[in-house]
Amino acid sequence: MTSQNLSGGERLPQERRVVTEIPGPRSRELQERRAAAVAPGVGSVLPVYVTDAGGGVVVDADGNSLIDFGSGIAVTSVGNANPRVAARVKEQADRFTHTCFMVAPYESYVAVCENLNRITPGDHEKRSILVNSGAEAVENAVKIARYATGRQAVVVFDHGYHGRTLLTMTLTAKNMPYKQGFGPYAPEVYRMPLAYPFRWPTGPENCGPEAAAQAIDQITKQIGASNVAAVVVEPIQGEGGFIEPAPGFLPAIAEFCRANGILFVADEVQTGFARTGDMFACEHEGIVPDLVTTAKGIAGGLPLAGVTGRADIMDKVHGGGLGGTYGGNPLACEAALAVLEEIEEGKLTERARRIGEIMLPRLRALAEKHEAIGDVRGRGAMIAIELVRPGTKDPDPELTAEIARRCHAAGVLVLTAGTYGNVLRFLPPLVIPEHLLIEGLEVIEEAFAG
Ligand SMILES: *Cc1c(COP(=O)(O)O)cnc(C)c1O
């Protein structure tokens, strides 16, 4: 895996380098300034102030070089400041930075939509719209689904995460910190059980069919299938803890949707764009969603998101019913076109698989040694471990935070997740050099050793 050409990493030494405590003095100074200026409701996983990033590293204001196992939450999959992305954005910035697509359009928006229509699952005719964030994409998918079906109810699942706007926080399962005190929530949202193999009462083998049957029974009995506009589901739950729904669950739900005129909306905001080893995670079980929401990995960090769907659904909404001032901004569209070239030319789906092939066996071996690791899971470069109190399945969020803290102190940027806050999740850039991936894993192993 020689990634230097693609990653932008040639500009920065691809090394872990810890030269101060983390965060160091310069970052701590900035953190004080921040406390006086920035509302504390916006948190940071690790308050090191970044001055540079590329390939598999993030460099901070004190000169520390951290191994990046986060990619800005699955965003900089092609590497931070990827040279092709940076060049396209610079060139566009010199020509025009904004017209508003709803005022006077430009080609790159169309080209991004053509690409989304081409690469999302299914070879039926599709249309796309572009917006600014994952939450905005999910909001629009629900608007479109309601319009197209003339129905109101929206079904979501336990452990789901769909954003922080009023509707999308309603769709999100976890109260603290996403919903606490921010109600009342949007109406007509119904939550169903999810096939969570590690925590399914009758065991992982029965999980897929049993969870699907429960969800379908509840939808039928509690809402009535004919009232449901859409089922919105992440093919792998992201913030909820990288839960891979047990095999058979998603196909059964998709089939139920098809039989009942319900639109199946795949929220691929975190799982999309090669992250899981497929271009989209739905492909793993051959699911063809009616609508797909995308964001995060789409544009190398520039704010962009999309809704892509069946042409007959997307074409229904009246002119002017969808849009927004900045949606499909020309800088972001150029970035997205560059990202897609990098993913396809660089065969990043294969790289994602390779990352999983390296990480999963090592983490499974680590789990053999440490009873605190209850589960190792994920696909491609979307990998997680779930921490429990030894001999039980009781979540251990304290140990999770402590392991993350040790990794950070040693110069590896890892993230936590999970309904119970007990999941360490790993989202390395797909272009991370292999030696950094392995060194990052060694640091995680040392963190467990104490
Ligand atoms: C991050 C995320 C969102 C929200 O995206 P934002 O760009 O933060 O609004 C929605 N759905 C999923 C699955 C996500 O991971």
From TrEMBL:
Enzyme Commission designation: 2.6.1.19, 2.6.1.22
UniProt keyword Transferase, yes or no: yes
Transmembrane recorded as keyword: no
Reactions it catalyzes: (S)-3-amino-2-methylpropanoate + 2-oxoglutarate = 2-methyl-3-oxopropanoate + L-glutamate; 4-aminobutanoate + 2-oxoglutarate = succinate semialdehyde + L-glutamate
UniProt-recorded Gene Ontology molecular function terms: (S)-3-amino-2-methylpropionate transaminase activity; 4-aminobutyrate:2-oxoglutarate transaminase activity; 5-aminovalerate transaminase activity; identical protein binding; pyridoxal phosphate binding
UniProt superkingdom: Bacteria
Classification via InterPro entries: 4NH2But_aminotransferase_bac, Aminotrans_3, Aminotrans_3_PPA_site, Class-III_PLP-dep_AT, PyrdxlP-dep_Trfase, PyrdxlP-dep_Trfase_major, PyrdxlP-dep_Trfase_small
Gene3D superfamilies per the UniProt record, alphabetical: Aspartate Aminotransferase, domain 1, Type I PLP-dependent aspartate aminotransferase-like (Major domain)
Residue ranges of coiled coil: none
Pathway assignment: Amino-acid degradation; 4-aminobutanoate degradation
CDD domains hit by this protein: OAT_like
Requisite cofactors: pyridoxal 5'-phosphate
PROSITE patterns registered for this protein in UniProt: AA_TRANSFER_CLASS_3
UniProt keyword annotations, A-Z: Aminotransferase, Pyridoxal phosphate, Transferase
One protein family per Pfam: Aminotran_3
Signal peptide: none
Enzyme class, UniProt record, top EC level: transferase
GO biological process: gamma-aminobutyric acid metabolic process
Family statement drawn from the similarity comment of this UniProt entry: Belongs to the class-III pyridoxal-phosphate-dependent aminotransferase family.
Protein name: 4-aminobutyrate aminotransferase
